[in-house]
Amino acid sequence: MDRAISPNEKKVVNWLLDHALVDVTAYRRHPVQELRVVGGCSCGCASLYFEPEEQLGNVQMLADELAVYPDGQQAGVILWGREGKIVWLEVYDFQPVRPTVFRMSPIYALGMI
Length: 113
Prior knowledge:
Shape: globular
Strand order of the largest sheet: 3-4-7-6-5-8
């Protein structure tokens, strides 16, 4: 897989950067719209890798928030980075009812609605 980040994915990443747990100044030097999705989680969740999973190494949690799908189901979203680059968007449903890979579009971090 190698594709541009989608508009909905870009909104989620930007929202997470706006509500980060740490100083993300270095991570804002690279425009989010230039991120490339290079992989997804093998478990079937909606997590996205912007760097190959085997190259993630020592990553830092940038943001950890609760999200809600339009149908009300909740999920956790965590943004991970390393050395000023966003490397992983982790998405995990609290009560999976179907494969989450089809549910990324759209999810809304609480507070965005």
